[in-house]
Design goal:
mainly beta; five-stranded mixed beta sheet; 5 domains; rod-shaped; single chain; 6 helices; RNA Polymerase Alpha Subunit, Chain A, domain 2; 455 residues
């Protein structure tokens, strides 16, 4: 106890001198800014105040001590355990201020602070995927599904009520042509809010972009119409249909081929409704797939050579006849409807006048063509009509003829020819009016009597 007694007495003396100096020094007042530290919170509650409360503390004490003090030499503590949920005014007693020895707290401003206490809860909040970039040309992102879709978040009840979704880091889809799985993270920060660390991935569904396009329709027929008929025209109504499908597929399409319409045995125009078939997988007709196909049938136009039949008008002169008539050319090439030419055995000319003719008749008539038929070989037409004398037959008397006179002293008696008549043939004009025909000249006999002469 009495060890180092001189040293202890010296220390006591010095301390007494310092106390006497301080107590004898002039007192003053000064203010300091002191943060209020929360020592305890009610169980299950959290303090929502974003800024740490600060109070102004007015203290008094010796000037020498105050001159050496700063804000950091003071502390203020507040116990919130007795309080409940909500906004409350909490008074700050002088006992809450911890000041250095030798100074006295004279005033605290403000005398109370407003605090907001809220319950700590857990809530499942949906995650939201943010897509970045674009897929390959012709493709689009159909959906993005996050796994897990929600996140258990812990924090103040009032703050969690304001959070409807939590974004993730961007899901990059550049150049994708199909489905993909992309790892992402939570891209979210909020004071007093926390969540457990866990892996999150985005399931990205990428599909060809569905586009619309109007394509012309192409109608066709199958089979053969009735003989002599042909398909003149095939039209469709509407002339185009709207298709929808994957962009890479639809962009390659140029037209739509309709199912062929059967025309076997037909000869009259008709309309048939057909259903267009999808031109490729995944292609549809959003505005309808029915098309009316109108088929126009007409008689077939053919060509063939047909003999020319000359037509004569009138009668040639008496004792004349018409010889073998010639037509140049004897056949002509005609074009016209099948059923008119198929049964046409010949084509007549316009009448060639031969009335009273006694010689060759040459004419250039026209052709009498059926309706819808025309001549295609060109050139003229000449009809040559020979007119000849008709050959006649007639009985004529035979009259004997003699050279010179009978011998002297003789004379010709009765002369009779046998046969008395002969049948003659020849040009009718020469026979007309010919009643008799003479024999070749005979010589008279040299003596009297009945003689038979041959001629």
């Amino acid at each position: 106890m009495f060890e180092n007694l001189p040293l202890k007495l010296l220390s006591l003396l010095l301390a007494s001198l310092v106390w006497l100096f301080v107590m004898g020094e002039e007192h003053s007042e000064r203010s300091y800014s002191v943060p209020v530290q929360i020592t305890r919170l009610p169980e299950g509650l959290v303090l929502l105040n974003e800024e740490e409360p600060v109070v102004e503390v007015r203290v008094s004490g010796p000037r020498g001590i105050l001159n050496n003090l700063s804000d950091d030499d003071f502390t203020a503590t507040l116990d919130l355990a007795p309080y409940g949920k909500g906004e409350v005014e909490v008074p700050i007693p002088k006992e809450a201020i911890h000041a250095p020895q030798g100074v006295t707290v004279s005033r605290i401003r403000p005398a109370a602070i407003r605090v907001h206490l809220d319950a700590v809860v857990e809530k499942e909040i949906p995650l939201k995927a943010l897509v970045e970039g674009v897929p390959a040309p012709g493709y689009e992102v159909k959906s993005v599904r996050l796994v897990p879709p929600t996140l258990p978040v812990t924090g103040p009840e009032s703050l969690l009520a304001q959070i409807t979704e939590i974004p993730t880091t961007p899901v990059k889809v550049d150049g994708l042509t199909g489905d993909a799985t992309v790892a992402v993270q939570v891209d979210f920060q909020r004071r007093l809010v926390s969540w457990p660390a866990r892996p999150i991935h985005a399931e990205v569904a990428v599909a060809p972009r569905i586009v619309r396009r109007t394509l012309p329709v192409e109608a066709s027929v199958a089979g053969r119409p009735r003989t002599g008929y042909r398909v003149a025209k095939v039209t469709a109504s509407p002339e185009a249909l709207v298709v929808a499908g994957p962009q890479p597929v639809v962009e390659r399409l140029e037209r739509l081929a309709l199912p062929p319409v059967e025309v076997t045995g037909r000869r009259h125009p008709f309309t048939r409704m057909v259903t267009a078939a999808p031109p490729a997988k995944g292609v549809t007709f959003p505005e309808g797939d029915r098309v009316g196909v109108h088929v126009v049938l007409e008689e077939e136009v053919v060509e063939r050579e047909v003999p020319v039949k000359p037509v004569l008008h009138g009668e040639v002169a008496a004792d004349y006849k018409v010889g073998e008539v010639q037509v140049v050319p004897p056949k002509v090439r005609l074009r016209g409807p099948y059923h008119r030419l198929a049964t046409l055995k010949s084509v007549e000319t316009t009448p060639v006048e031969v009335g009273g003719a006694r010689r060759l008749v040459v004419a250039r008539p026209r052709l009498r063509l059926p309706k819808g038929v025309e001549r295609v070989d060109g050139g003229g037409l000449t009809v040559i009509v020979p007119v000849e004398e008709r050959t006649g037959r007639r009985d004529a008397r035979v009259e004997p003829a003699f050279r010179g006179d009978p011998p002297p002293g003789l004379r010709a008696g009765a002369v009779a020819a046998h046969p008395a008549k002969v049948a003659l043939t020849g040009p009718a004009t020469r026979l007309r009016g010919l009643a008799s025909v003479a024999t070749e000249p005979l010589a008279y006999p040299g003596a009297a009597g009945r003689h038979t002469l041959k001629g």
